[in-house]
């Protein structure tokens, strides 16, 4: 395509936005409202997924070492555990360190036990895949000199089930919202093009090719999607910035944290812009097909 022809298409697409003011406004408004919902829900789902990941990654296995095990046996047990292919973050904790944790968590009443510490030496292990925690615990429980292996049996399985259900439900909801966005934006753009069907028919009757007729409308659809994504990107960025600024300080030092403002907001912004432009162009392309059959 010649540069002059392409330049003409760009000019025509811009002019059409102005000539069809109310339809342009309606299209941009639909895109704006829909993408705001998509953006907000995308931020919520991203943070919920992070929350689920943080909870899963905090699950660990606590191995209490048999009192009969000496230093040599403890080293051998630790070496066996480290050789397992599906574990990570292996930490040894002496009975004195265990008592300090108890005193920190439950108060100074347990200081009296410093003279006669009843606790055992322990090893803390995390599975590379948190969903495999139970299987890893069963393997370790078979090793010699393991007095007890704790990982929250029963509760952990229920937790993982709830988290997986939440993820699947969130995925279904976001797919449904995206499909709704496509439907609303597509139908609005289709209405815009339907109102200009006479213009398309005249262009075809005077000999214009399908591509010559289609390109300005495709560009117009892209502009509608782009302009309609400006406000959602701004709203979502400002909203998340303020939420992050007000909530994050209260979560400092806690397990559960919000996703960082950057790069998340740039990723969501890019998604909204791409979604608006692609749906705008796709809506124009599909809506024009029957009007080009003359």
Question: Keywords, please?
Answer:
Alpha-Beta Plaits, 294 residues, alpha+beta, 2 domains, elongated
Short description:
The chain is an alpha+beta fold and 294 residues long.
Plain-language structure description:
By secondary structure, this protein is α+β, with helices and mostly antiparallel strands. It has two domains: 3-55 and 159-292, no CATH class; 60-150, Alpha-Beta Plaits (2-Layer Sandwich), CATH 3.30.70. The chain has helices at residues 3-19, 21-57, 71-83, 95-106, 133-141, 155-194, 197-205, 210-247, 261-288, and strands spanning 61-65, 87-93, 122-127, 146-150. Strands 2-3-1-4 form a four-stranded antiparallel β-sheet. Helix 2 packs antiparallel against helix 6. The chain is elongated, with a radius of gyration of 30 Å.
Write down the overall mean pLDDT.
80
- Please summarize the sheet with the most strands: 4 strands, antiparallel
How many domain regions?
Answer: 2
Taken from the alpha-carbon principal axes, the silhouette is: elongated
* Poorly predicted parts: none
With strands numbered from the N-terminus, the spatial order across the biggest sheet is 2-3-1-4
* DSSP, total strands: 4
Number of helical regions: 9
Write the layout of secondary structure elements.
Layout: H1 3-19, H2 21-57, E1 61-65, H3 71-83, E2 87-93, H4 95-106, E3 122-127, H5 133-141, E4 146-150, H6 155-194, H7 197-205, H8 210-247, H9 261-288
Antiparallel strand pairs: 1-3, 1-4, 2-3
Helix pairs in contact: 1-8, 2-6, 2-8, 2-9, 6-9, 8-9
